[in-house]
Each structure stands twice: as C-alpha cells, then as structure tokens.
C-alpha cells in the first residue's frame, strides 16, 4: 500500500496561488497527470500536471532543466503524446517526479521562476485521453448496484451466486473511450419492444449513465505470471472518473449469452487528469465488513493489508443539466452522491483476479470499477436504479422529469477526497452531452 511522505503534508502551500484555495481540486498535495495542448493550435500533445488552475508543461520544464536525475528522466518520458512510457517506468520514477514537482511548486522554491514560464492556464487547454488504452475491462464491484439491477429482473434471486466469490468483469472496447468534453451521438441498435416477437432497429430510448472510476495500469506483468494481491498497488498508476454510458433497451436483447456489446461500446467518458495512487494514500480505508454469512475471499484475493486499507474513500456525485436548464442559465443539479468506500471488491482484488489466469496487463490498460452505487437508493449511480427501471421518474428543480436521458442532456461527474488532517484533493470534471442520433 502507498505510504505517506512529505508530498502529503497538509500544511504545504504553492506559489501558484489558485492551488491554495480551499475548494481547489488540484492543490500541491494532488499533482495529477494528463495529456494536453493549447486549444485551437497544432501543438503536439504532451504530458502535464494540474496545479490550481494551471498546467505544468512537463516537456517545457524538462527542456528548462528544472528536474534532475530520475525525475528528469521521468519528465522526459512525459513529453510523449500519451503517458504510457512514463507509466511503464514504475513507482520509483512516478514518485521521484511527484516529489520533484512538489518541491519546485512550494512557496519559496528556488526554481519557481524557471517553472513559472512553463505554466499553461487550464482555461486555454484542450485534453486527450491520457493514455493509449490497449485493453479495457469493466468490473461489477458494487454489490448494491448488482443487487438493485438483479432485483428488477430476478426479484426472488437478485444476486447471482458467484458474485460474492469472484470480481465479475467483462472485456470492453478501448477505441470508443473519449475524454471529458467530447459529446457523442445517441446510439442505434436492436431492441425488443414489450410484447413483440421480433426486434426493431433504431435509436436507443433508454440512454443511461454509470458513475464509475477508471483504474489505469502502470507497469504490466509478463504473460503467464499473475500479479499477487500484495503487489497489485505497485502496478496501478492512478484513477480517473469514468462514465460508462449504457443503452438499457439495447442491452437486454443482446447480452445473452456472451454479455454486453453495442449497448456499451459506443462511448465511455473519462476525466482528463489521472490522480495517482500515491496522492490518494491519505484516503485509504478498510473495505466494508462482510456479513457473517458471506464467504470470505479465497486466499489469492485476501491479505492483511487489503483487509486493513484496501478501499479508498473517494466522494462521488452525478449532476444533470438539461438543454432547457442551459438555455435558462440554470446550473446542473445533483442526481446522486456516494463513496467508492462502499465497493464490495477493491482495486487490488480487481488487478489480482484479472491476472490470476496469467493474463498480461500492459501500461495504459484501463479497468472500470463498475457502477459505484452505495447502500441506499439515493446513492444509486445509474438512472435505471434511481427510477426503478423507469417506473419512478426523477423530478428536477425546474419541473422537468427524467426516467432516462433526453437529447441535449449534459451529465457531469465529480469526485474528491477530504478528511480532517489531510488536504482536500479532487478529480476535476467528467462531462459530456448526449447528441441526437445520426440519420
């Protein structure tokens, strides 16, 4: 597990004044990594680090000689158009660059002048997906989401018998993962209308959200060599927000017997900044205590460290802004809020199970946590849960109602961590708007 060090000191302040605001997602204790360029230019995509409302251009900082030794080599790798080469360097390099950045961004830093010339305002930047994602696997780690969904289709047996034994997952499609701010068109597919004996083809009428986290793999493993649970953290670079959009009317017709297909592979949105696992170290907590009649994890999914601090207390929320709200100048309204700490399976268990058969993960691979619904229905993180399959519409402050998403609806995911004795850190926004289906 990640341990605390000087970069986590809550008393640290930055000479980038916007980083010192209490509501900043990106104080000096965070320092998340992403890929950016100045908006509207033909500049090369390159790595950067968020600090307050600014971005440290790591290619420029490296050229200016701000870093030395291992940190300099790591910063040089961040000059690529993706973070994959940096991710592959491993935890020592990640920590070296994070420490160097922390020291040079602190108030009174001798090299502040040199680094100041390497800042780019976030308001002037555009972003790319932070890594070239070779493979994407989506899990089902919230027992509350699994139970809520199962209850709608199997009232007498909502949870499948394997759920409490194994971290359930399926392989998704990486080519349609997009960065926050890129809108997408409503998907088309086959659906089976109620009472019909033959399907119809057309736009989905039940567009849904799924509030998740994306886990980005840093160092991979050799084919045939599983990653033990005790080593899993060393292979995880960090996390972003993830909205795994879902077409709920396409899904039930197609998913038997092989699982989700067109209902899931049209778009999945990630936030641009990867918050490192090291930055999240102060927010380690114990996973939920399993009921006495639940099976305990098999040995390869169990360790004292995972039981003590395998979970992360990340606060999460979903906000909706309809087209009508935008026209009226109304801010997005909160639909739901929860915490990642409620997940039944931890990110370490996801990594250990994914590789238990010898599957080789690679730098930049992405694992989705699955919809992170909490223990009560007001913490449900998909509309299919919040509206009980569309039976109970959500009423918005302006009187509009939603069972599923309309064209023009904009969804915003936010995430942050805070507690006494630690600096508040955030993930930024993960946002996109549903556009009408293409003709």
Structure description:
- The protein has about 450 residues and is of the alpha+beta class.
- The chain folds into two domains: about 5-130, Roll (SH3 type barrels); about 135-435, Alpha-Beta Complex (Fumarylacetoacetate hydrolase, domain 2), CATH 3.90.850.
- It is about 20% helix and about 25% strand.
- It contains eleven helices and 26 strands.
- The protein has helices at about 60-65, 70-75, 85-90, 90-105, 110-115, 145-155, 250-255, 305-310, 325-330, 345-355, 385, and strands spanning about 35-40, 45-50, 55, 120, 125-130, 135-140, 170, 175-180, 185, 190, 200-205, 205-210, 210-215, 235-245, 245, 270, 275, 285, 310, 315-320, 335-340, 365-370, 395, 400, 410-415, 425-435.
- The strands form seven sheets. Strands 6, 7, 8, 13, 14, 16, 17 and 22 form an eight-stranded mixed sheet that branches. Strands 4-3-2-1-5 form a five-stranded antiparallel sheet. It has a five-stranded mixed sheet with strand order 9-26-25-20-21.
- Strand 25 (about 410-415) and strand 26 form a beta hairpin.
- It is globular.
- The model has no long low-confidence stretch (mean pLDDT about 95).
CATH homologous superfamily label of the largest domain: Fumarylacetoacetase-like, C-terminal domain
How many runs of DSSP E, i.e. beta strands? 26
Please, how many domains? 2
Bin the strand percentage.
Answer: 25-35%
CA-to-CA gap between the ends?
50 Å
Alpha-beta classification: alpha+beta
CATH architecture of the largest domain: Alpha-Beta Complex
Low-confidence runs: none
If you compute it from the alpha carbons, what radius of gyration comes out, rounded to the nearest whole angstrom?
A: 22 Å
At the first level of CATH, what is the class of the largest domain?
A: Alpha Beta
């Amino acid at each position: 597990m990640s341990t605390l060090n000087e970069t986590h000191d809550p008393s640290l302040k930055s000479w980038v004044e916007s980083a010192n605001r209490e509501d900043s997602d990106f104080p000096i204790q965070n320092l998340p990594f992403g890929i950016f360029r100045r908006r509207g230019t033909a500049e090369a995509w390159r790595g950067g680090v968020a600090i307050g409302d600014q971005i440290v251009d790591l290619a420029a900082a490296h050229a200016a000689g701000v870093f030395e030794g291992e940190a300099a080599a790591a910063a040089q790798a961040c000059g690529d158009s993706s973070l994959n080469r940096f991710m592959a360097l491993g935890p020592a390099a990640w920590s070296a660059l994070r420490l160097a950045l922390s020291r040079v961004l602190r108030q009174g830093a001798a090299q502040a002048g040199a680094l100041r010339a390497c800042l780019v305002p976030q308001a002037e930047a555009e972003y790319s997906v932070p890594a070239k994602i070779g493979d994407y696997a989506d899990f089902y780690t919230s027992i509350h989401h699994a139970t809520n969904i199962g209850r709608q289709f199997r009232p007498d047996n909502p949870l499948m018998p394997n759920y409490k034994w194994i971290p359930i997952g399926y392989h998704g499609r990486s080519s349609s993962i997009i960065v926050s701010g890129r809108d997408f068109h409503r998907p088309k597919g086959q659906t089976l209308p109620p009472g019909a004996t033959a399907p119809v083809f057309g736009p989905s009428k039940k567009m849904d959200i799924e509030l998740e986290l994306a886990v980005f793999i840093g160092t991979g493993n050799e084919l045939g060599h599983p990653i033990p649970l005790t080593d899993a953290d060393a292979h995880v670079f960090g996390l972003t927000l993830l909205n795994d959009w879902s077409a709920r009317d396409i899904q039930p017709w197609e998913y038997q017997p092989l699982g989700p297909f067109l209902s899931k592979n049209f778009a999945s949105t990630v936030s641009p900044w990867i918050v490192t696992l090291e930055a999240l170290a102060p927010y380690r907590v114990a996973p939920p205590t399993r009921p006495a009649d639940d099976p305990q994890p098999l040995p390869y999914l169990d360790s004292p460290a995972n039981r003590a601090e395998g979970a992360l207390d990340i606060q999460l929320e979903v906000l909706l802004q309809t087209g009508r709200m935008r026209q009226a100048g109304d801010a997005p309204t909160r639909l739901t809020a929860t915490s990642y700490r409620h997940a039944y399976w931890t990110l370490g268990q996801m990594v250990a199970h994914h590789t238990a058969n010898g599957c080789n993960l690679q730098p930049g691979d992405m694992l989705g946590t699955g919809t992170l619904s909490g223990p009560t229905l007001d913490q449900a993180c998909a509309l299919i849960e919040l509206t009980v399959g569309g039976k109970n519409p959500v009423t918005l402050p302006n009187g509009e109602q939603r069972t599923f998403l309309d064209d023009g609806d904009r969804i915003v995911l936010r995430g942050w961590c805070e507690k006494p004795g630690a600096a508040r850190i955030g993930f930024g926004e993960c946002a996109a708007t549903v556009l009408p289906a293409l003709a």
